[in-house]
Amino acid sequence: MATPPAPRSAHPYHMYECIHDQPKAVRGILDSQGEAAKALAARVLAARQVHIVGIGTSWHASLVGEHLLRQVGGRDDARAWNSFEFCAYPPRLGAGDVVIVLSHRGTKQYSLKALALAKQAGALTAVVTGQDSAARVDLADVVLRTSYQDRSSAFTISNTGAMTSLAMVAVHLGGEAHAGSLRALPEQVTAALALEPQVRQWAKSVKGSGWFCFAGWGPNAATAYEVALKINEAAYPVTTAFEMEEFLHGPFVATTAGCLVTLIAPPGPGYERALEIGRAVRETGAHLAALVQEGDKDMAAVAHEVLSLPPVPEFFTPIVYLTPLYLFTYWLALELGRNPDVFRLNDPLHQAARRHYAL
After folding, report:
1. What is the pLDDT of residues 327-352, one digit of tens each?
2. From CA 265, how far away is CA 66, in angstroms rounded?
3. In what order do the strands lie in the sheet with 49-54?
4. What is the mean pLDDT of residues 40-59?
5. 167 and 21 share one domain
6. DSSP H helical segments within 177-270, as ranges?
7. Do 236 and 160 lie in a common domain?
8. Residue 1: its pLDDT value, please?
9. DSSP bridge pairs for 305
10. Residue 291 contacts residue 191 (beta carbons within 8 Å)
C-alpha cells in the first residue's frame, strides 16, 4: 500500500484536496473500470443472492449500492451488510451467490474476514478497493479499482469512488438506460463543488450548534449516516443521522433552539414528508438546512439554508449530494479548530483509547 503523506497542521488539509479531486476520480473510474464492472454485472445477473459488504464509510456505500442494484439493476434481493454483522451472523452462502466487499485500503479486519468467509463458502467474490490497497485481491474473482488512497483519515474520495463503481455495475445490469446520467456525474460533482463559498459561510454560522442532525430517505438515508460519521470523526461535535421518517418517531422530540437539522431532500417519494418535517422543525426554533434540486421553491420557503444541486436521478444523488456535505464537514472542523485528517489521534486520551482496539 502507498506510504501515507506527511500530516499537515493548517489549511489545506489532505481532506480538502481529496474532496476537490472527486470529479477527476469519478471520471477516471468511468474510463478505466468499464470491463470489470461489466464482468461483475454478468455474475450478479446470474446470481442466486447478492450481498454487498462494508464497514464504516464502506457500509454507507454498501447501502447506496443496495439501492442501485435494486432500482437500476433490477436485483430486488440485493442486500447491504455491515461487515461485522456479516461475519457474526452470516447468511447461507453457496456457489450461486455473489458477495461484493468494499474496502478502500483493504485493511479492516472484518471486511477481510467477510471476504475469506465468502470465498470459503464457494460464493463468487468481488472486491471494490482503492489503488495500491492491501486488499486480498487473491480471494476475489473480480476487482474494481477506485481512487488513490485517501490522504486523510476522513475518507471522502474513496466513498465517492465506491459508489461510482457500484453505479456502473447497476447500469450494466439495467440495460444502459441510465448510461447518460452516469457519464454526467463528473460535471455534476464539479457543480456541487462550486457551492463551497456558501457551504463555508453555512459552517461558520452554525458552528455553535449543540446538536447536528441529518435525515434522508431511500439512498439518502446513507448520505445522512455518512455525513454524520464524517462530522464525528473530523470535527467531533454531537452529530446523529436518521432515516427521515424514523427521525419523527422519537428523535424529533429532542429538537430545539440551538440545533441544526439538515434534510437531504431531492425529488422522490419522501419529498412531501420532508416539507412537513421541515415546517415542524421551524416551529421548534431549530436551524433548518436542506439540500434540494435546482429550482425547488417549496423547501426554499421553509429552510434557513438551502443548497441547490443539479438535477440527478434519485439513485445517483448520494454521489453528488455528499460533495457539499463533505465540504461542510471540512469547514466546520476548521471553524472548531480541529485537524480533520488525524482521527483525533493528536489527543493523548484518544491515543490511549486506541490501544484497546484494532480496526
Report:
1. 999 999 999 999 999 999 999 999 99
2. 19
3. 79-82, 49-54, 97-102, 124-129, 142-145
4. 98
5. yes
6. 179-183, 185-193, 196-206, 219-234, 244-248
7. no
8. 66
9. 289
10. no
Q: How far apart are CA 342 and CA 234, in angstroms?
A: 8
Q: Considering the domain boundaries, does residue 78 fall inside one?
A: yes
Looking at the structure, tell me whether residues 20 and 146 fall in a common domain: yes
Q: Are 135 and 129 in contact (CB under 8 A)?
A: yes
Name the grid cell of 182.
452516469
pLDDT over 90 at 238, yes or no: yes
Asked if residue 282 and residue 194 are part of one domain, the reply reads: yes
> How many angstroms separate the Cα of 236 from the Cα of each of 239, 337, 340?
8, 10, 9
Residue 149 carries which side chain, given as an amino acid letter? Q
Q: Are residues 263 and 144 in the same domain?
A: no
179 with 47, same domain? yes
Mark residue 306 as left, alpha or beta (left: phi above 0; alpha: psi -120 to 50; beta: remaining): beta
Residue 256 identity (one-letter amino acid): T
Residues in Cβ contact with 216 at an 8 Å cutoff, skipping those fewer than 6 apart: 222, 223, 224, 243, 244, 263, 264, 265, 270
Rounded Cα gap, residues 25 and 3, in angstroms: 19
Give me the residue label for grid cell 472527486.
22
Domain-ending residue, one of 183, 209, 235: 183
What is the spatial distance between Cα 36 and Cα 68, in angstroms, rounded to a whole number?
17
Q: What is the pTM of this model?
A: 0.98
Q: Which domain holds residue 299?
A: 189-335
* Sequence-distant (≥ 6) Cβ neighbours of residue 234 within 8 angstroms: 15, 154, 329, 330, 332, 333, 338, 340, 341
